[in-house]
Structure formats: structure tokens, C-alpha cells
Amino acid sequence: MKLRSFLLPYSTILAVLALRVAAADSKPVAPPPITELAGFVGGVWMGDLPPEKDGPQMHIELRFAWTDDKQSLRFESAFVRGDRKSPYVSGMYAWNPGTKKYVIFYTDFSGSLVQGPVAKEDDVLVHDLTIVDATGKADAAQVRLHRTGPDDFINTIFVRKNDAWEKFVEVHYHRTP
């Protein structure tokens, strides 16, 4: 009897989902707002990091791709030094229909989770992020992506200091096929 009462809510959920899918098949679906980010998909984006005192120049390689359902974008990045690549971040952009905003979340090589809403201000995507490191400590950051051409954008990262945003780093990205 317990198993039957446990399964009953799931059969109801499945029936509701089946009805929603059938209803969706009967009417045209508008493209999701995430398509505004489509210009990032394709090719390889490379950004030069500020030079270090010792050692070779380091770059960031970044790739965007649609998820299979075309409702969100995946991205992967790696640090590149010479011919060596080291994973940096893996994440996703999606549209939140409840808040009418993009959201982003990603993990990085050190085990941190980064997430937050993304708003559009003119032609800049402003990311207000919460960074939770592997120990559970949380910090805030703001990232501003500004497209400067079809194959170029600037990624400016700000950190919170004394109740104000202070520029931490600015990276110019260029896309190659």
C-alpha cells in the first residue's frame, strides 16, 4: 500500500506533463528570449589575460553551444599557456520566465559555484553574481559583457570593496572560426 500511495503523485505529475506536451504540440512556440545570446554561439573566443611578471602569456579560451532543447546555452572555458590547457569554468545561461531575466550558473576548477541574474542594460549584459567557494564562503561580483562587434566582446569583472564596485580585470575576447 505504501508503494502505491508513493507512486500515485508521480503518475499525476506524468499525466499533467503529458497534457502540457500535447498542448504545446498543437500551437506554435515563440522562440525563447535566450536567442538574444545566440551571437555568442560558434567558433572559439580567445581573451588575453593581463601579463604576469614571470612566465608565458596566459589566455582564456571560451566556447558557447546550444543545449539540445535550444532553451539554454552551455559554455566551457580553459586557461591556455603555450600549448597547455587547464579547465577553468563550465556553466549555462537560461531564461527564467518567472523573473523575465537571464540566469547564469557555473562551477570553476576550484569547486566554487557561481550564480545570479543577468540583466540587459543597453548593449551590456550585467551579471550580478554570488560566488560560493568550496568552503561555503560567499562573495559578490559583477560581470559586464559588452559586445563591440560580431566577433568581439569585452568582459569586465568587478568585485565589491567598501560598498562599491571596483574593477578587478578586463579581458577583450575575439572569436575565430
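That was protein one. Protein two is written in the same sequence-then-structure order:
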Amino acid sequence: MLPLRFPRRWHLASVVLLLAVLLAMLMPAVWLFPHPGEFAGWFGEIDKWLHGVSFAVLAIWFAGLYGRSAYWRIALSLLAFGMLIEVCQRLVGYRTADWLDVAADVGGIAIGLVVGAAGAGGWALHVESWMAGTVQGDG
């Protein structure tokens, strides 16, 4: 982890973020679309985009907390998380597992880590620096 001032808070926020993604991916689609017939085809198309965008956000999040030397671990961990989501979706009766979702996850991870390497990596250090300046400036 990068030399952050509040590593426990960042870890807690990371756990909350991962749980939120897991719960969102396991939520019945009926909760989002009460009339599934109207959106069935649309949801099937957007599902892959949702996976990709979610995992791009997760990759950027973790690229902000860890240095570039850890990007391969971020990629493998998020891949394992994506596969766990698919296993959980298979275990619940109202969702289906799809390996194309894992492919979308991989695409999102790659995009997120490229964005991290292009300059967004380490963003948490900037946030902490900005917050320290804000707190000192308010005094």
C-alpha cells in the first residue's frame, strides 16, 4: 500500500466498495426493472457494460491505493473477485452465471489499470494531501 496517513480507513472503504459491488451484482434484476418484459433485451446488452465499468472503477480505486508494482496483484485479485461473483450468481436462483461477464470484468480491469498507469494511480495520496491542506486552511 502507498504511504497513506489513514490506511485502515482506506481498507474499510475498500471492503465497503467490494461488498456494494457484490450485492449489486447479486441483486435481482426485477428490483431494478419491475416490468422485466420491457427491459429484458436492454438489460442483457447493458449487463456486460455494467460489469466492465464496475471493474474499471474498482481497478482505478485500487490503483489509487497501491503502487504500480502491485498492479498485477490488483488484476489477479479483481479477476478472482469477478469469478466469485459469477459463482455466487450461479448459486442464487434468480441470476445466471456468464463467462462473458468475466470477460467484461477483465476488460474493465485492463482499462482501469491503464488509466491508473496513465496518471490516475496514487490518487488517494492526492486526496489525503488535499484534505490535510483543507483542514489546515480552515484553522
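Helices lie at 7-26, 29-32, 36-65, 71-91, 99-120, 123-138. Keep this in mind for the problem set.
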